[in-house]
Task: structure prediction
Amino acid sequence: MNIHTIADHLNSLADNSDTGMSFDCQPISGEVDVLQISILGREELPIFVSVTEDQILCISYLWGVEEVKPECIAPMHESMLEMSIPMPLSSFSKIGDKYVVFGALSISSSLADVEHELTVLSNNAVEVIDDMSDFLL
Amino acid sequence: MSIFKKIMTAVRGGASEAGEAIIDANATRIFEQEIRDAENHLTKAKRDLTGVMAEQMAAKREVDRLQREITEHEGYAGQALEKGDETLALAVAEKIAALESDLSAQQQAHDSFAGNAERLKELVKKSERQVAEHKRQLSMVKTTESVQKATSAITDNFSSSNSKLLSAKDSLERIKAKQQKFDDKMKAAEVLESENSDTSLEAQLKAAGIGNQDSSANSVLDRIKAKQKQ
Result:
C-alpha cells in the first residue's frame, strides 16, 4: 500500500464509489510522499494522506490557533477531548499551530477501508467546523 | 526518558520546525539495529527451543520404554520365582536394577530438558514482547518525523501554488453554499419534472374549473338540445 495505489483506486472509482463521493487525487512531492485528496464540493477541506512503515495517516486541517477566540482555547480543548471517542474513526490532533482531525489505518487495510475512512473523515471535518464555530473568531 | 516523553518534549520545545529531527538520525539507526539484533536472537532462541523440545520428547519416550521394560521384567522375575528358579529370578532382578538406574538417569535428563524448554519459552515470550515494544517506539519516532516532513511538503505546496489558505469558517461557508446550490438545482429539476405531470398549473386550473374543460356527456347533450330548438 502506498499513496499511488490509493490514488489509482480513488481516481478509477469516478462515479462508482459506494460512498456517493467523488475524489480527486493530487500527489505532493517532498521528503515524504503526500497525497492531496479533494472531495467534489468540498475542495476547501482537502485530506492529506501519507503512508509510513506500519500505518496510513489521513489528515484534514481544521483551523489555526489564531482563528480561535483566546478565551475559548481551554473549553475548545476540552470539547475536542470529550468528542474524540464519539466521533467515528477520527481523532483530534494539533500539528504545529494547526488543529486537525485525522484517522490512522493499519498498512494492511483494504482500499475499501481507505475509501470509507476518507468519507467519514471528510464528514467529521465539516461537522466539527460547523459545531465548533462558536469557539472561532 | 521514554520515547513518548522525548517526542512530547521535542514537539513542545519547537523541534517541529522542518529539518530538526526528534531524535538524531544516528540514534534512530542504532535503535533499528538493536531491533534487528533482538529479532536475530529471537530466531536463534526459537531454534534452540525446538531442539530442546525434541530432546525432551526423546527422553520421554526413553523413560516410557524403560518403565515398560521394568514392568515386563518384574513379571518375568515373578514367573521365575513361581517356578522356584531363584538363580534366574536373581538374574532378572539384576537386569531390573540396571534398568532402574537407566530410568532414573533418563528421568533426570528429561526433567532437565523440560526445565530448559520452560525457561526458553519464557525467554522467547519476553523477547517477543520487547521487540514489539521497540517497534512501537520506533514507529512513534518515525511517524512524528513523517508528519513533520509531510506538513512541510504541504506548506511548501500551498505557498508555491499561491493558493490562499481559507479560515475554517470561510471554508465551511463555501462548502455549504455549494451544497445549497446543488440542492437548489435538484429542486429546480424536480419542479421541471412535475410540470409535465398532474401537479402542473394547467391541471390546477382545470381542477378549479378555469380554462378549457373536458367535454362531458351533459355538455354534449346540451349542445344537441340547443340545435333542435333552432
Q: What stands out?
A: Residues 3-135 of chain A form a domain with the Yope Regulator; Chain: A, fold (CATH 3.30.1460.10). Chain A has a mean pLDDT of 91.
